[in-house]
């Protein structure tokens, strides 16, 4: 999962970044409203951890701007102002959850997993396409009930495509989503090709009835190939 932390307190921002990166998330940060606005205007995220009280603006205004543009990132508000008014206002403006400071990092991680499950619909655990099941919480992938060991980036790539079956994905968009902001500006994408080659081989060897096909000149698309 790709996460943007919008938090002006450096020590808390660093602690959250280190903790979530240790849980295998791709984590980017912003310390001001302006930095967050620039990040969100350039890149996409799965989840935004949004402080209300920023030195140059209100996180609620940023939330309002996100929703006005139809952005689909999950948003969890983080605020030292534990007032019912702020909580109601944030939720009414489209936030997915509200976590008052101070909070335990284990609870933050649990809230992130919870909103991710809800966004997948029905609150189910994991993603299933064809005979492939991916559990983002245990980092386990199974084909027909048998585990397929994947490296971290292979897992992240598969998770990205399983959430977008049938969609054409530009290689630069994939690089940014899996490796982090600015990866899309790399001189070449050999690091993407190498990981993709290994992942496609492992899926084929395991008998998966999905395939991540290369689309010449563009990128990749996940398709289903049901076996007879």
TrEMBL record:
Modified residues (4-aspartylphosphate): 51
Protein's UniProt keywords contain Transcription regulation: yes
Keyword Coiled coil: no
GO molecular function: phosphorelay response regulator activity; transcription cis-regulatory region binding
A GO biological process held by the record: regulation of DNA-templated transcription
UniProt domain OmpR/PhoB-type: residue ranges: 124-224
InterPro entries in alphabetical order: CheY-like_superfamily, OmpR/PhoB-type_DNA-bd, Sig_transdc_resp-reg_receiver, WalR-like, WH-like_DNA-bd_sf
Gene Ontology CC: cytosol; protein-DNA complex
Pfam (any one): Response_reg
SUPFAM superfamilies for this protein: CheY-like
Keywords: DNA-binding, Phosphoprotein, Transcription, Transcription regulation, Two-component regulatory system
Response regulatory domain span: 2-116
DNA-binding interval(s): 124-224
This protein's name: Response regulator transcription factor
Organism, scientific name: Candidatus Merdimorpha stercoravium
């Amino acid at each position: 999962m790709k996460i943007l932390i919008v938090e002006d307190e450096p020590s808390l921002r660093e602690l959250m970044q280190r903790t979530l990166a240790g849980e295998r998330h791709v984590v980017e940060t912003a310390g001001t409203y302006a930095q967050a606005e620039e990040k969100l205007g350039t890149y996409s995220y799965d989840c935004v951890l949004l402080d209300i009280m920023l030195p140059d603006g209100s996180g609620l205004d940023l939330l309002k701007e996100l929703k006005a543009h139809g952005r689909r990132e999950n948003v969890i508000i983080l605020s030292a102002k534990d007032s019912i008014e702020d909580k109601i206002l944030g939720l009414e403006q489209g936030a997915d959850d509200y976590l008052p400071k101070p909070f335990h990092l284990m609870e933050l991680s649990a809230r992130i997993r919870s909103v991710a499950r809800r966004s997948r619909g029905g609150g189910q655990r994991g993603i299933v396409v064809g005979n492939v099941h991916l559990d983002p919480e245990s980092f386990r992938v199974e084909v027909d009930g048998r585990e397929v060991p994947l490296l971290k980036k292979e897992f992240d790539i598969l998770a990205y495509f399983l959430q977008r079956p049938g969609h054409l994905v530009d290689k630069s968009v994939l690089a940014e989503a899996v490796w982090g902001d600015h990866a899309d500006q790399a001189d070449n994408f050999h690091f993407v090709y190498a990981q993709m080659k290994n992942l496609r081989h492992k899926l084929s060897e395991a008998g998966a009835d999905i395939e991540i096909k290369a689309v010449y000149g563009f990128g990749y698309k996940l398709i289903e190939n049901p076996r007879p």
